[in-house]
């Protein structure tokens, strides 16, 4: 298969200046960048905020919030004062080191302030996704026997205190009087100084539940030491320079929104854009223009939606500041990369990591050629391999289990209440951490995601990854999105079945199915062509990160929904 590669853009990239391909790199080399290296005193919140103020950068804009009808900014000094006031309120209400503090707030500077205030006093923060309903909120807080929650009145209908017996105190960010403590009102009465509670690098920092793509979400606890890798990937993968205006579109309830929406940009001292509100192409292009975003981190589902808009829509907006675009969360279809390159003149840099890994491990560095379809190569300091069922390394281009050599600085601290689960990530013993993803690595070390281990389709003895077919389907003019699964079949074991969402102006028909099937057959492989096609208005997706839920499609299939 010939791949049209995309050469590196010309730019002054930090990774290119500080590291060259083939150079050794060890995470220890950057320990001296942190204040704790000199002082022995550790706290993520300090490194994110206070140190910049101490270094004379207090006047720099830390947060730039935009939503319909509201726009505010916080300098680093203002952020420091707010965080301190909130931390004082939390402390006076009993929050102490090691406690869980859940934060259930919309995308807003208050969400950042709440998280940092909890962290500053050594608590473990649990950000909850803004669209969670009662059950999701309850399950997570109960699982941790959480005592503290910071939320907003408009979210309270989804918090049922009777169902969460451990919950002692609820803080709300609204100023009105009510049965809960108004943290904003109380904070106004406080002085803006707070004695940081110093912790160990190994102490708990945050808990995030995985997306639940393959089963029940797992509670993953991370430690303060994560900052080492989160800072460094912010510097080398996101290429954050202090002058950058950076926008990560994820809500902190998804690990990306915390690590790359809160920690990494603040550690690097840049201006973080926060957009309150939902996706619309107009709103998002508007944010890029209005805030002058230079570095933008989003997800394939958003890029696909932008691609499906009226051609030329982007021309109504001034996107000239934008210089670096990244993606994460699910496979990034080559078609989307080519479209973005043609339309915006920008490369989309795919990155791969998991809730458990705490930071990016595989990525397209800005200095590297992109091979569309590949999520990139292991970043400096990371070693990856593709293993067979017995844990042996496979040769180039053979599909197997993606594995990473442990350990790295942001590796999870523990799986909450499930220590046995931790070991299941190391099924072959030794140091190979298994992601649960299938991939192959080409001779240049580029890794090509093939699907979840659970999603592999076995048809007439051929192992087929759903992603390659989905990407091929996207090249067909009628196809907007698709989800491909294996349907049990007596003769072949499984057959390929595709659920397809059509672009506007197309209607599902037997003829169109035939055309699509023929298209995959002639341009990919006969055995990959979906024997069955179902047209659907929408695909089931994970609530937080918008990933296509193939296990839900398998359920549809089993129950004969479509
Ligand atoms: P759960 O573990 O609960 O089933 P999840 O794996 O989707 O859910 P996350 O930790 O949010 O939870 O996502 C990590 C997974 O997302 C990876 O294992 C991988 O399957 C997928 N992923 C992340 N980035 C990429 C990428 N760039 N390309 C392809 N897949 C990706
Ligand atoms: Mg997972």
From TrEMBL:
<keyword id="KW-0007">Acetylation</keyword>
<feature type="domain" description="AMP-dependent synthetase/ligase">
    <location>
        <begin position="52"/>
        <end position="413"/>
    </location>
</feature>
<protein>
    <recommendedName>
        <fullName>acetate--CoA ligase</fullName>
        <ecNumber>6.2.1.1</ecNumber>
    </recommendedName>
</protein>
<dbReference type="InterPro" id="IPR025110">
    <property type="entry name" value="AMP-bd_C"/>
</dbReference>
<dbReference type="InterPro" id="IPR045851">
    <property type="entry name" value="AMP-bd_C_sf"/>
</dbReference>
<dbReference type="GO" id="GO:0003987">
    <property type="term" value="F:acetate-CoA ligase activity"/>
</dbReference>
<feature type="domain" description="AMP-binding enzyme C-terminal">
    <location>
        <begin position="468"/>
        <end position="543"/>
    </location>
</feature>
<dbReference type="InterPro" id="IPR020845">
    <property type="entry name" value="AMP-binding_CS"/>
</dbReference>
<comment type="similarity">
    <text>Belongs to the ATP-dependent AMP-binding enzyme family.</text>
</comment>
<keyword id="KW-0067">ATP-binding</keyword>
<dbReference type="Pfam" id="PF00501">
    <property type="entry name" value="AMP-binding"/>
</dbReference>
<dbReference type="GO" id="GO:0006085">
    <property type="term" value="P:acetyl-CoA biosynthetic process"/>
</dbReference>
<keyword id="KW-0436">Ligase</keyword>
<dbReference type="InterPro" id="IPR042099">
    <property type="entry name" value="ANL_N_sf"/>
</dbReference>
<keyword id="KW-0547">Nucleotide-binding</keyword>
<dbReference type="InterPro" id="IPR000873">
    <property type="entry name" value="AMP-dep_synth/lig_dom"/>
</dbReference>
<dbReference type="GO" id="GO:0005524">
    <property type="term" value="F:ATP binding"/>
</dbReference>
<dbReference type="GO" id="GO:0005829">
    <property type="term" value="C:cytosol"/>
</dbReference>
<dbReference type="Pfam" id="PF13193">
    <property type="entry name" value="AMP-binding_C"/>
</dbReference>
């Amino acid at each position: 298969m010939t791949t049209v590669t995309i050469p590196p853009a010309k730019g002054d990239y930090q990774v290119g200046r500080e590291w060259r391909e083939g150079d050794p790199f060890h995470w220890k080399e950057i320990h001296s960048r942190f204040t704790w290296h000199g002082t022995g005193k550790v706290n993520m919140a300090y490194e994110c905020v206070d140190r910049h103020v101490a270094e004379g950068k207090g006047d720099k804009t830390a947060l730039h919030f935009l939503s319909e009808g509201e726009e505010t900014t916080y300098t680093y000094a203002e952020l420091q004062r707010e965080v301190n006031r909130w931390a004082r309120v939390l402390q006076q209400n009993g929050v102490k080191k090691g406690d869980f503090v859940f934060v259930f707030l919309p995308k807003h500077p208050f969400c950042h302030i709440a998280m940092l205030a909890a962290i500053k006093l050594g608590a473990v923060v649990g950000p909850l996704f803004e669209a969670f309903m009662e059950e999701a909120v309850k399950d997570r807080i109960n699982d941790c026997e959480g005592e503290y929650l910071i939320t907003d009145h408009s979210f309270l209908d989804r918090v049922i205190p009777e169902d969460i017996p451990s919950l002692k105190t609820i803080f709300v960010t609204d100023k009105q009087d009510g049965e809960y403590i108004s943290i904003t009102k109380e904070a106004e009465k406080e002085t803006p100084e707070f004695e940081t509670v110093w912790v160990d690098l190994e102490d708990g920092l945050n808990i995030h539940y995985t997306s639940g793509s393959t089963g029940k979400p797992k509670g993953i606890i991370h430690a303060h030491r994560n900052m080492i890798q989160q800072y460094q990937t912010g510097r080398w993968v996101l290429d954050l320079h202090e002058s950058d205006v950076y926008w990560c579109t994820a809500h902190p309830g998804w690990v990306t929104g915390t690590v790359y929406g809160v920690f990494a940009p603040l550690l690097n001292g840049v201006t973080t854009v926060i957009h309150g509100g939902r996706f619309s192409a107009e709103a998002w292009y508007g944010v890029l223009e209005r805030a002058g975003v230079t570095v933008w981190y989003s997800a394939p589902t958003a890029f696909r939606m932008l691609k499906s808009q009226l051609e030329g829509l982007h021309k109504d907006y001034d996107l000239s500041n934008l210089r670096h675009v990244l993606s994460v969360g699910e496979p990034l279809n080559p078609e989307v990369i080519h479209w973005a390159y043609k339309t915006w003149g920008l490369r989309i840099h795919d990155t791969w990591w998991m809730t458990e890994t705490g930071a990016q491990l595989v990525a397209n560095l800005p200095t590297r050629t992109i091979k569309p379809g590949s999520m990139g190569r292991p970043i400096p300091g990371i070693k990856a391999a593709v293993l067979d069922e017995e844990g042996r390394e496979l040769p180039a281009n053979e599909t197997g289990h993606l594995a990473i050599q442990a350990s790295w600085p942001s590796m999870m601290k523990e799986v909450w209440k499930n220590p046995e689960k931790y070991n299941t990530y190391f099924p072959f013993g030794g140091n190979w951490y298994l992601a649960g993803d299938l991939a192959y690595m080409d001779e240049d070390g580029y890794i090509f995601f093939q699907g979840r281990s659970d999603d592999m389709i076995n048809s007439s003895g051929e192992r087929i990854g759903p992603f390659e077919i989905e990407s091929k389907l996207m090249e067909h003019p009628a196809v907007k999105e698709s989800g491909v699964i294996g349907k049990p079949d007596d003769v072949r074991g499984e057959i390929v079945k595709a659920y397809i969402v059509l672009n506007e102006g197309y209607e599902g028909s037997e003829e169109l199915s035939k055309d699509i099937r023929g298209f995959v057959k002639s341009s990919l492989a006969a055995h990959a062509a979906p024997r069955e096609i179902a047209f659907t208005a929408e695909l089931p997706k994970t609530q937080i990160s918008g990933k296509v839920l193939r296990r839900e499609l398998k359920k549809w299939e089993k129950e004969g929904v479509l």
